[in-house]
């Protein structure tokens, strides 16, 4: 994972890959199967599944809904989780008598959804499952941990976070470029710091995971990179450059050394961890062809996208490259 700023070529600046990602919505477990969700009339959720070892587990969740706007002095919304199925909270086999009162889900479409429902109070609960830890730079996962699917729980009553993405070219059309902004209820989503390797250091920061399809890495979907939206604008930008996999903290297969190619593809998808305990959201779209200065349509499109970028910057000095 790397936090990216388009300032210098070919290095995009601030830093790299080994750090654990911030929890999106809220992480329940990894590599689980037979997943079920129940919600009672008290606002508690019971998540049931089988672990990677085949053991049945029941997780009681409560105490959070929606998300707070970034605030240095107040912690972000977060569930309390009891992995004993309620024994820790009630000192009995609570999961055995848990009464589900959650009805049919009629909320917005969710990316990576496993199951969702509508509680009696009108709020929504959902479970999403996707591969968070795929290695950057298009590498095929070389460990079981890199291939695992994470299970995330969310609970909300508001609109979902909004991930806006545009594409163009930069450095006189030499490189493919992606930019956008991440907002929740019309306000930027951002954190107050990252580690040296680009991972958020507080509950407000959220990583945006960019996947590329049918690229120089090979056929199918590959993880290109991950990065955070900027403080305080929620703006982000990313250029598809070549990368030295052995530098800057990128995880890479044992024994690998050298450069990775430009990862632009024929399609892209970007998944962003939902702020607070709201659902994770995803954008997807077709990739652009290579820029041609002799193509008037390309020139006009680039001019329009430059204007679009300028219109969302709001003083952001990290994403000014045209």
What overall form do the CA principal axes indicate? globular
The share of residues in helices is: under 10%
* Distance between the ends: 24 Å
Enumerate the strands of the largest sheet in spatial order, edge to edge or round the barrel.
Answer: 1-8-7-6
Describe the 3D structure.
With 322 residues, the chain is mainly β. A hairpin with a 5-residue loop joins strand 2 and strand 3. The protein starts with 26 loop residues before the first strand and ends in a 10-residue tail after the last helix. The chain is built from three helices and 18 strands. It folds into two domains: 1-27 and 123-322, no CATH class; 28-122, no CATH class.
Q: Which key terms come to mind for this protein?
A:
single chain, 4-stranded antiparallel β-sheet, 8% helix, 18 strands, 2 domains, 34% strand, mainly beta, disordered N terminus, globular, 322 residues
């Amino acid at each position: 994972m790397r936090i990216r700023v388009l300032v210098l070529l070919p290095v995009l600046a601030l830093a790299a890959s080994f750090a654990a990602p911030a929890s999106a919505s809220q992480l329940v477990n990894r590599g689980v199967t037979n997943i079920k969700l129940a919600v009672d009339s008290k606002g508690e959720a019971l998540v049931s599944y089988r672990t990677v070892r085949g053991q049945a587990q029941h997780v009681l969740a409560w105490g959070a809904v929606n998300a707070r706007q970034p605030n240095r002095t107040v912690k972000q919304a977060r569930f309390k989780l009891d992995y004993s199925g309620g024994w820790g909270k009630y000192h009995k086999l609570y999961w055995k008598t848990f009464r589900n009162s959650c009805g049919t889900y009629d909320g917005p479409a969710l990316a990576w959804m496993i199951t969702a429902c509508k509680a009696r109070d009108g709020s929504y609960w959902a479970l999403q499952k996707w591969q968070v830890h795929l290695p950057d730079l298009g590498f095929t996962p070389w460990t079981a941990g890199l291939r695992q699917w994470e299970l995330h729980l969310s609970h909300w009553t508001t609109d979902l976070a909004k991930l806006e993405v545009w594409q163009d070219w930069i450095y006189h059309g030499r490189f493919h470029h992606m930019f956008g902004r991440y907002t929740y209820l019309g306000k930027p989503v951002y954190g107050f710091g990252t580690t040296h390797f680009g991972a958020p250091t507080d509950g407000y920061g959220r990583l945006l995971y960019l996947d590329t399809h049918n690229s120089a890495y090979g056929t199918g979907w590959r993880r290109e990179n991950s990065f955070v939206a900027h403080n305080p604008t929620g703006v982000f930008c990313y250029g598809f450059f070549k990368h030295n996999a052995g530098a800057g903290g990128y995880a890479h297969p044992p024994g690998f050394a050298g450069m990775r190619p430009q990862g632009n593809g024929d399609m892209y998808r970007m998944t962003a961890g939902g702020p607070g305990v709201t659902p994770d959201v995803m954008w997807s779209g077709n990739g652009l062809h290579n820029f041609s200065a002799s193509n008037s349509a390309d020139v006009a499109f680039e001019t329009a996208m430059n204007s679009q970028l300028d219109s969302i910057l709001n003083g952001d000095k990290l994403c000014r490259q045209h």
